[in-house]
Amino acid sequence: MSFEVTESTVVLAIETSCDETAASIVMGGNDVLSSIVSSQIDIHARFGGVVPEVASRAHLESIVPVIDAAIAEAGILPSRIDAVAATAGPGLIGALLVGVSAAKSLALVWDKPFIGVNHLEAHLYAGLLDDPTLEFPLVVLLVSGGHTMIIHMKGHGDYTVLGRTIDDAAGEAYDKVARYLDLGYPGGPVIDRIASEGNPHAVEFPRAMMHDGLDVSFSGLKTSVINHVRKNPEMSNVDIAASFQAAVVDVLCAKTIKAAQQVGAQGIVLGGGVSANSFLRSEMSRRGGEAGFKVALPSRAMCTDNAAMIAAAAWHRLKSDGPRELDCGAYPNLKLAEVPR
Ligand code: KG4
Ligand code: ZN
Q1: Which of 8, 21, 136, 165 is most buried per CB count within 10 Å?
Q2: Which residue, judged by its Cα, is nearest atom 23 of ligand 1?
Q3: SS3 236
Q4: 37-44: long-range contacts (C-beta < 8 A, 24 or more apart)?
Q5: pTM of this prediction?
Q6: Which tens digit of pLDDT belongs to each residue from 74-122?
Q7: Residues with Cβ within 6 A of ligand 1?
Q8: Which domains are assigned to the chain?
Q9: How far apart are the CA of 17 and the centre of ligand 2, in A?
């Protein structure tokens, strides 16, 4: 299908890869006309984490009202939509299928092109959406519940992963430490909040692999926190949280800045749920700025899962590669450089 992509091309995008049902309408790849996110956090909180079966059912219940709300908020008629996109991976297979099926159905009924989007690529576009003045090459720190990657973004669709976690993702470490301290789920926002009242130097937790290339590791830090709490049960959670967070943020800042220096980046961009973290944001701005880099911090709404970033990535992929066939599937283990087909 030949398809012309312009500044007035309107994309409806759907995101259902994990525990947020989201829909958004974006024009020209960066003009967000609407962005609706329905979170399932309250539903999963009592289980202490996302339950895949429960997530799929909740997506099924929310998907139609969320799409309706996105169209209503954008104030357009469905006939104005030029293409329909959905996250095709990575993520939970049952959850992904709800969004992909909804998007394909709408594309078929409206006779518009469909495009499956890589969720990781979309997280990179969240930063660009909020700051269109950013120039390549960029180094993007992508830190979420499932991924921790330092990425060299040379241009649209042109990525090299410079470093990644060799064990737990940063968000996973936050969630596991919070669960151990009985702080609830998801752990990142709680630790972020209570850490601001604690002493980040109360315990000097280990900074793993600090001088070892660009990969990171958080599993030893998590064990070290658990051992420390066992041996010092009287110590306050706020000091533990602040000290744990100081170690995570120290490593992420040091490695990201080192990567930016190595590739001669024009700027540093944060992406993914953990980039909503207050301390990571302030430290990366300060340390990145001191090292001479422009540091782009997407708004908190753009850091966590949303469909506006899916629409932005879809617009760029439509421009470079064109639409996909309707037999494009859902791919739970999709890698950053892989294009869903
Ligand atoms: O990107 P995201 O919404 O979903 C995934 O694709 O994984 O990221 C969710 C992760 C969770 O681990 C959550 O604890 C973490 O992001 N997170 C935070 C904060 N807000 C969310 N971590 C630290 N500080 C925060 N403020
Ligand atoms: Zn995500």
Answers
A1: 21
A2: 188
A3: coil
A4: 37/301, 37/304, 37/305, 37/306, 37/307, 38/62, 38/65, 38/66, 41/185, 41/186, 43/19, 44/19, 44/185
A5: 0.93
A6: 999 999 999 999 999 999 999 999 999 999 999 999 999 999 999 999 9
A7: 18, 144-146, 171, 174-175, 186-189, 192, 272-274, 276-277, 304-305
A8: 10-125+303-321 (3.30.420.40), 133-299 (3.30.420.40)
A9: 8
